[in-house]
Amino acid sequence: MGIFQRRPSGPEFAPQPTRPRVPPNQSVTTSFPTLTVEQIPSVDMNNFTFRFWGEVREPTGMTWQQLMAVKHTTMTADFHCVTGFSMLGTEWGGALVRDVLEAAHVQLSTSARFVMAHCITEFTTNLPLDALLADDTMLVWEWNRLPLTNEHGGPLRLLVPSLYAWKDAKWVSGFEFLAEDRPGYWESRGYHMHGDPWKEERYG
Ligand SMILES: Nc1nc2c(c(=O)[nH]1)N[C@H]1C(S)=C(S)[C@@H](COP(=O)(O)O)O[C@H]1N2
Ligand SMILES: [Mo]
């Protein structure tokens, strides 16, 4: 067979519509900058409770030990900051948010449509419930197989690869389920309520 072998034709070889890996107007960096508006908090894991409240049957919580017992998941994901840099192919470890909700026996009210992620600090960010329950949305405590450092949100941060990285609340401490969307820290300062990098939903 020669090297000029013809490409087979047929539907399975038709070019697939793909989107570029890097969203519009982002440039790729290999460093991991930190973007933090507040003082980096110190977190005592022995007194840590991750809380669930708002549009739920009953507010509940999970200790750090209970959280560590949730099925472990690792995922390679890209990270897109609204200020224009993207970091590709980082490996995160933690648990899928939906596995956490199941383990905590959180029963969402039928009115729950959005969620506000709260932090140990004053930072907050809102997202649609669908995004929180997506296949790739995690609570993470490992970055490239090492414990997530304090400056990057350790011990625990939210990771929502489908949205701009300001939705990845660092030092995250709970989810408040909402019937109506409400702006979080950056969203009330002009950032978009949703924040899809593929649609360039940067500012509202
Ligand atoms: N608590 C908290 N979480 C936060 C932020 C913040 O200032 N405080 N900044 C957000 C923004 S704008 C980005 S781009 C990412 C940056 O994460 P990094 O500092 O680990 O790179 O965290 C997000 N989560
Ligand atoms: Mo950001």
From TrEMBL:
Pfam families per record: Oxidored_molyb
Domain Oxidoreductase molybdopterin-binding: 39-186
Superkingdom per UniProt: Bacteria
Disordered: annotated segments: 1-30
This protein's name: Sulfite oxidase-like oxidoreductase
Organism: Candidatus Cryosericum odellii
